[in-house]
Amino acid sequence: MSIPTEGEKGAHREMGAGALIVVTINGLKIFMKEVENVQDSKTVSSAAEEKREEKMTDAQRARVERNRQKAILLKQARLANHPYGQDKDRHKVKAPPRTIDTGAGFFIEEDEEDQIQREIKHPLGPIIPQISERLLCEDCGKEFLESYLHNHFDAFVCDLCRENKEKYELITKTDAKNKYLLKDADFDVREPPLKFILRKNPHNPRWGEMRLYLELQVQARAVEVWGDEEKLEEARDQRTANKEKAKQKKFDKRVKALRMAVRSSLWRKEMTGHEHVYGEETYNDDDDEYSKTCTTCGHVMTYEKM
């Protein structure tokens, strides 16, 4: 294949024709007209298809039509059997569950559903209230839009005042029950239930999550349960006294058991048998029998004389 010279190209351009492509086959040059735009290429392809159809016989056209109708029927049957593509889920292969080393000598399997449930869900941002709906801090009296204590404990305290950790301290449920003498029902059942947050146990992360309450709210709930702080102090003193009594009673019991153990180790049981010491002989006229009674244990021996 050769490329036309500049002179040949220029000559043909002067004649108003497009670019030429020269093909040399066995020394014979064949000049072909190059299509200038897409519209001309489409025209050429459509003309070629028309020529191809003209060359097809009636039998070939009938076979093409039958194949086309058959393809349409197959497509309609497939759509009728599976209109919504329900068979797609049947061929899905579920990946094997991922195993997690618990560090306690065994493995656990984590499924995709568990992994989806453990996905972190970010809470939605607060709705910006109007000026008349803004919150007032109970400590400093300033307005604020949102705060950590208000979002988690419904406490009207801004984040600046929250930095006073001694006043707004968090307390675990176990410590709150021991310190304020409360029960589980006082936290969850009594209205309104106290708000809390969940945190990992710092002593061992494998243990259950611990509940943290706002100590001010726990203290208010204790006053509500006991009546006032004086009765709460009396209950604390009574519980302390009961603990001391139980402790002393347990100690006395252990001392008594120790004394009994010491006494039993000093006492030696006589291994010899008992020897009866009988008194005077008595006679029974009704039964015609004689009897003797042991002076030590009271055993009675009866016998007859020939």
TrEMBL record:
Places the protein is found: Nucleus
Basic and acidic residues bias spans: 48-64
Keywords for the protein's UniProt record, in alphabetical order: DNA damage, DNA repair, DNA-binding, Metal-binding, Nucleus, Zinc, Zinc-finger
CDD domains linked to this entry: DBD_XPA
Record-annotated XPA C-terminal domain positions: 167-218
MF-aspect GO terms: damaged DNA binding; zinc ion binding
Domain of life: Eukaryota
InterPro entries reported in the protein's UniProt record: DNA-bd_dom_put_sf, XPA/RAD14, XPA_C, XPA_sf, Znf_XPA_CS
Region (Disordered): 39-64
Protein name: XPA C-terminal domain-containing protein
